[in-house]
Specification:
The chain is an all-alpha fold and 384 residues long. It is built from 19 helices and no strands.
Length: 384
């Protein structure tokens, strides 16, 4: 890795757009996890083929690569690899605690409210029949209670970040090509990981790794190809093509909820794209996300002053403390769902529980950030 690339990686640090997008992804995931919530109509998945999970995986790969690539260049690959595995362990520990408490909470609520349908709705029926076996499979990331699958996927992807990082720092384009090859083979040969008690991972890691690696590749190579990107964004035809594709995706996605629009779309066309392939992240879904990225970076450059405005700080803070926010969002989405199924499920109540959940997640983010600063001050004071 030459000094120029080292300087480029350092320069890309501190990009507030990363935290902004991670915060948006966390807010959208929370809203998407509340069934039959009108506010969730505002999330990304309702405006095209890709959704909050695509955003979370791509930006997560981008952010993690920036952190550990800089560490590799400054302290060596071995140190960076051990720090990555430490982070994977932290994510895994958070997942296990979340899994156990979450499943127990759902079981308690279902038994207290005489609502057994919650078990099947949240994919924990096996816990009732075989609790010990389900917990064991949960330790191996093979159980799949609802709303934990995104974190499960991210743990698997982060575990292979040392291999990805090693390749990207030496042969970045070949590493990206290998990722594309794995994605293609997984789709053609139908590779996936098994889950308990039956079925497969909801998000196929062999396919979703492509978005993660693409995020990593852009983190390291984006600066080098900045002139090419700007030249492409300056071409009116490419901007128009990206916008038209997003409008096409919006039209097809909206047709599922607008009968008049559905009548205008040929059935064969709708069947080819709907419902969108989440398990294996269909190529048209990736293309949709790339079109969004193409226009987003055009409209929101890295140095945009609005990123430091007070109005965006809550979202950015949620992105900076994404793990705590994600974990709290899982419980809050269940709490919101419980309130809606046991109380008045009106539009006003849906808005209330959605806003209350986002406020609570933001409060968690600010508390965790404040707590870290206090720990740092204590450590500095103890050492002085």
């Amino acid at each position: 890795m030459n000094p120029t690339t080292h300087a480029e990686i350092v320069a890309r640090g501190g990009d507030l757009r990363i935290a902004l997008l991670l915060g948006i992804a966390n807010w959208f995931l929370f809203l998407d996890h509340i069934p039959h919530d009108a506010v969730s109509a505002l999330t990304l998945r309702n405006f095209g083929f890709s959704g909050a999970t695509d955003l979370f995986v791509f930006v997560g790969g981008y952010a993690a690569t920036l952190i550990y690539a800089r560490m590799t260049l400054e302290r060596g690959f071995l140190v960076a690899a051990t720090r990555i595995f430490k982070r994977v362990w932290q994510l895994y520990a958070a997942y296990i605690v979340l899994f156990v408490v979450y499943v127990d909470l759902i079981s308690y609520v279902a038994s207290r409210t005489a609502a057994p349908e919650i078990f099947s709705e949240f994919n924990i029926t096996g816990f009732i029949d075989h609790p010990i076996r389900t917990l064991i499979y949960g330790l191996f990331l093979q159980a799949k209670p609802l709303n934990l699958d995104v974190l499960q996927l991210f743990i698997g992807l982060m575990a292979f970040l040392p291999v990805i990082l090693f390749g990207l720092l030496r042969v970045p384009n070949m590493t990206l090509a290998a990722s594309v090859a794995l994605y293609t083979a997984a789709r053609v040969l139908d590779w996936n990981l098994a889950s308990y008690p039956d079925g497969r991972w909801y998000f196929n890691p062999f396919c979703w790794q492509l978005l993660f690696v693409m995020g990593s590749w852009f983190a390291l190579m984006g600066k080098r190809y900045k002139r090419v990107t700007r030249a492409m964004q300056a071409i009116p035809a490419l901007r128009a093509a990206a916008l038209l594709y997003l409008l096409f995706a919006l039209m097809l996605t909206s047709s599922s909820s607008i009968p008049a629009l559905a009548d205008m779309i040929p059935g064969s066309l709708a069947d080819a794209f709907l419902p969108t392939d989440k398990e294996n992240v269909a190529p048209y879904r990736i293309l949709h996300f790339l079109a969004l990225t193409f226009l987003f970076t055009l409209l929101l450059p890295q140095g945009w002053k609005g990123l430091r405005s007070y109005g965006l700080q809550p979202i950015i803070k949620c992105g900076e403390e994404w793990l705590a926010v994600f974990c709290s969002g899982v419980f809050l989405s269940f709490a919101a769902h419980f309130v809606l199924i046991t109380g008045p499920n009106s539009l006003a109540m849906q808005i209330v529980v959605s806003v209350a959940g986002i406020v609570a997640m933001t409060g968690v983010a600010y508390y965790v950030s404040w707590s870290k600063r206090q720990d740092y001050k204590s450590a500095v004071g103890a050492g002085s």
